[in-house]
Amino acid sequence: MAMPPVRIDDPADPRIAGFVSIKERDLTGRQGRFIAEGTVVLRMLAAAHRAGRGIAAEAILLLENRLAGLADVLAEFPADLPVFVADGRVFDAIAGFNMHRGVLALGRRDQMPGRDALLAALAAESLALAACGLSNHDNMGALFRNAAAFGVDALLMDGSSCDPMYRKAIRVSVGSVLTLPFAREGTIAELIERLQAAGFALWGLSPRGETDIADIPPTPRTALLVGTEGEGLPDKILAAIRTARIRQRPGLDSLNVATAAAIALHQVARTNGRI
Amino acid sequence: MAMPPVRIDDPADPRIAGFVSIKERDLTGRQGRFIAEGTVVLRMLAAAHRAGRGIAAEAILLLENRLAGLADVLAEFPADLPVFVADGRVFDAIAGFNMHRGVLALGRRDQMPGRDALLAALAAESLALAACGLSNHDNMGALFRNAAAFGVDALLMDGSSCDPMYRKAIRVSVGSVLTLPFAREGTIAELIERLQAAGFALWGLSPRGETDIADIPPTPRTALLVGTEGEGLPDKILAAIRTARIRQRPGLDSLNVATAAAIALHQVARTNGRI
């Protein structure tokens, strides 16, 4: 159980400095700190903290009227975790905007395994999702949420993709960013080379893909690769690897990248008997 | 081709009154006017206007540096459509915020067929998507986008669902709201009754559904029903109709409603040979 709640009456109180103006401040990469929002994400943070693989909760800030309803979630945190409560006026003054949810946590992500260490640790039967040049935090969060739903073991991004530890991506992922192993480094060419070297059958997802996703054969290690929003995977990449498509009506615009990944992951997870 | 562009230098110019403070004003339902944003949606608006089924463009407002690149899209609009251009300062002062896209159109939705007329007009072989209590405009837009991708013939919502003609929903739908026939009225019980009376095999989508989506048999008329974000379909509804589930890993949270719909629509459209 986390510590007894401490009431905060001054938005400038140094004890809650980590929560100040979270909308304006980009906590990403700042000493590895991140912000978790909402009850479901708080629960995922507790799970990640207990798992002890590099994600730690540092403090919780609640709107005072949320406290009673969250007793069971708070019980999942360690006994020395500080919990602060504030009324609506003080809470909004701290956060810098009207935070309807009234549930915030400050977390820390310590040094996590890099791409190659993550790949080396995967089981003989694994499903990986790779992404290249993803620049939108909503899509990034949705990609994690969908990857978790279909049992992806690792999400691997090139270094040009945006940071999943950003508040909005964590929220949209419903906390999956905190529990699903991921790495974000290097070029897409390196990532493809590493996945292939690790024995992954790699399939680039594209409206122009050659193979219907339903015809991707089962393999112990399968990886799907998705590209930038809008543009998709570059032609050079599509020419170098096997490609798969989702049947759909011809039209001006293809599916959203996270939605396309969800449909393909669902299919591949079925084919491989993983769901 | 739309009319020669008229330059606007005064944000208070009455000719562009329909574009003022679009973020604050909820145009929804106000004399049936709506705002379309961005190049792709503008193109869909032109298509909808030409189709002449109740969607009409009234005016276009562009950032002046976007004009040259949009000549081909403007050519798709009728010759009497007013086009206004403004520099960045005036454009943002009109819109009320920094509109990076710099492409806006004001449209009008005239009286469209109601639910029953829409159902009566569907072909013998049809795919319908029904939604109950959808309250989030992003999800609504994504639902339309996914429905269009898999060839849904009509999207039918109960009256408690949010309005798809809202700017953000249109944008997220990538304009599909303007081209996909829809109706939003009545209760979900009525909608279920009407769909069944029209010979639709109706399947409620739920993590607790009885039938795997891959086992939904082909039928000339199939309808999928999705529920509120978070809560899903009420137990009372699930008990009254056939239900289907998407296989996934057990976890705290199910898929996003529009993502779940996409996966199920993809499967049902395949089963029925529609894609």
TrEMBL record, chains A, B:
In terms of domain of life, where is this protein from?
Bacteria
InterPro entries (alphabetical): Alpha/beta_knot_MTases, Ribosomal_eL30-like_sf, rRNA_Methyltransferase, SpoU_MeTrfase, tRNA_m1G_MTases_N
Which molecular-function annotations from GO does this UniProt entry contain?
RNA binding; RNA methyltransferase activity
| Entry keyword annotation includes Cell membrane | no
What CDD domains does its record include?
SpoU-like_rRNA-MTase
Mind listing the GO biological process terms from this record? methylation; RNA processing
Alphabetized Pfam families for the sequence:
SpoU_methylase
Which positions fall inside the tRNA/rRNA methyltransferase SpoU type domain?
128-266
Q: Which UniProt keywords apply?
A: Methyltransferase, Transferase
Recorded hits in Gene3D superfamilies, A to Z, give:
3.30.1330.30, 3.40.1280.10
Supply the name of the protein. Answer: RNA methyltransferase
Which source organism? Sinorhizobium saheli
